């Protein structure tokens, strides 16, 4: 692995992880799933002399994006843009309309991704992986053997499939045919602090995470209650 600035921040009451990722030379940076404590995020960006280039969103749920959740407003991407930062919000095209309604973002605020996108941070390159299942447009971000997985893959678990827009068959495909195929040494950075450690590896999850061990879709669906 090359040198990389990667800061994992646990913010808000739902144990969310928010990430700042940057090239340590150019200081070009992205924030992933900016929600909850926007003042603190901006303070860290300024203190660490980062040049924020984009706000990336793993999926449209308010605890990762901002917006209203159970009559409670979560500050998020919209509040970040109010700081007059020269950035856009990157969301998968299948969720762009949801994002606009939930988070109060306009179409001009968004970059619609399709799962084949990349973004450059100095000399580093981050890949977008479309991993639907938890939500239609769930996406993970891969940079230099580090995977930021949102709510698709957790340490020892995976995302829920009982929410509007969830699809257990799609999640199975995302876990088994996409993420499980990454190199063993790929470091996993999940969307929530639900385990006894903040990171894992794809190799560890392949060996120990039951949701990555199914060989048949039917068995996976049965375990998920379908």
Which strand order do you get reading across the main beta sheet?
1-2-3-4-7-8
What summary fits the major beta sheet? 6 strands, mixed
Would you identify the CATH H-level superfamily?
Ribonuclease Z/Hydroxyacylglutathione hydrolase-like
**Pairing-aware structural class of the strands and helices?**
alpha/beta
How many beta-strand runs?
Answer: 16
Mean pLDDT: 96
How large, in whole angstroms, is the Cα Rg? 17 Å
- What CATH architecture label applies? 4-Layer Sandwich
What is the end-to-end distance?
40 Å
Percent helix: 10-25%
Overall domain count: 1
Would you tell me which CATH topology applies?
A: Metallo-beta-lactamase, Chain A
Order of helices and strands: EEEHEHEEHEHEEEEEEEHEEHH
pLDDT < 50 runs, ≥5 residues? none
CATH class category label: Alpha Beta
How would you describe the overall organization of this protein?
By secondary structure, the protein is an alpha/beta fold. The chain has one domain: Ribonuclease Z/Hydroxyacylglutathione hydrolase-like (Metallo-beta-lactamase, Chain A), CATH 3.60.15.10. The chain has seven helices and 16 strands. The strands form four sheets. It has a six-stranded mixed sheet, with no helix packed on it. Strand 7 (89-92), helix 4 and strand 8 (110-113) form a beta-alpha-beta unit. The longest helix is centred in the C-terminal third of the chain and has 11 residues, at 168-178.
